[in-house]
């Protein structure tokens, strides 16, 4: 089954100086996000840890994976990092998630800091990724405006999601506190404006086409498409 080169595109090796340039850019973007969202004292405390370097490594892997799959950017990671708002959503998620994971252990971090970083990512990108969602390596959101990933969502490695996708709960209000969002396997692709609702499982290598509503488990390597599309042309 073909997967838009997902299985063969882990990274395209770039010249060493260009990889260094793109990594430095990712590090600068993370620094800018932090400086806008936290106090100088909080930034100093974070800078004294290895958090930024660890998040930069994760974000750079996301960036190289995106560049390997995106001819519209000329396969250029620097262009994507500087101009793609959907990449900004993932970068801010990575930073917010790491802060959320750490703030319980370091009393100096305000509990709200992860949410403030998430809010900045949403404002820049139009995509909302909860800081407590768990997302694997080399994650790509493409054309991400309107994408929502809920708090208890779990996403595997090498997944590719388009704009307007919702990984949400089944209810509207008064949802339970426990797991209520989907679990997505590795190398899953989800088309634009699809919704995956509730604690369902989507297996590895599944393909969900645009406009689908998923409320039951999807087995590994399955393809899901909408079969009700009907075009009507009324001539005057």
Automatic annotation (TrEMBL):
Does Transferase show up as a keyword for this record? Answer: yes
Would you kindly state one Gene Ontology biological process term found in this protein's UniProt entry? amino acid biosynthetic process
What the entry lists under Pfam families is as follows:
Hexapep (PF00132)
The record's listing under InterPro entries reads: Hexapep (IPR001451), LbH_SAT (IPR045304), Ser_AcTrfase_N_sf (IPR042122), Trimer_LpxA-like_sf (IPR011004)
Top enzyme category:
transferase
Please indicate if the UniProt record lists Amino-acid biosynthesis as a keyword: yes
Molecular functions per Gene Ontology? serine O-acetyltransferase activity
Which EC number(s) does UniProt give? Answer: 2.3.1.30
Alphabetical UniProt keywords:
Acyltransferase, Amino-acid biosynthesis, Transferase
- Which reaction equation describes what this protein catalyses? L-serine + acetyl-CoA = O-acetyl-L-serine + CoA
Similarity comment text for this entry: Belongs to the transferase hexapeptide repeat family.
Protein name as catalogued: serine O-acetyltransferase
């Amino acid at each position: 089954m073909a997967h838009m080169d997902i299985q063969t595109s882990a990274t395209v090796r770039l010249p060493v100086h260009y990889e260094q340039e793109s990594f430095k850019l990712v590090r600068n973007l993370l620094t800018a996000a932090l400086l806008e969202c936290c106090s100088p004292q909080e930034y100093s405390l974070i800078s004294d840890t290895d958090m930024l370097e660890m998040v930069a490594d994760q974000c750079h892997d996301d960036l190289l994976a995106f560049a390997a799959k995106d001819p519209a950017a000329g396969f250029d990671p620097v262009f994507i990092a500087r101009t793609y708002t959907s990449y900004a959503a993932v970068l801010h998620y990575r930073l917010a998630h790491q802060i959320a994971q750490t703030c319980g252990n370091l009393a100096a971090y305000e509990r709200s800091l992860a949410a403030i970083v998430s809010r900045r990512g949403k404002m820049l990108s139009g995509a909302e990724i909860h800081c407590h969602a768990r997302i694997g390596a080399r994650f790509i959101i493409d054309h991400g405006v309107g994408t929502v990933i809920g708090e208890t969502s779990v996403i595997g490695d090498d997944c590719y999601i388009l704009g307007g996708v919702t990984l949400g709960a089944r209810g509207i209000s008064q949802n339970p506190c426990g797991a209520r969002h989907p679990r997505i396997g590795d190398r899953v692709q989800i088309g634009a404006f699809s919704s995956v609702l509730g604690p369902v499982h989507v297996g590895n290598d599944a393909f969900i086409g645009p406009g689908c509503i998923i409320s039951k488990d999807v087995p590994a390597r399955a393809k899901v498409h909408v079969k009700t599309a009907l075009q009507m042309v009324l001539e005057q």
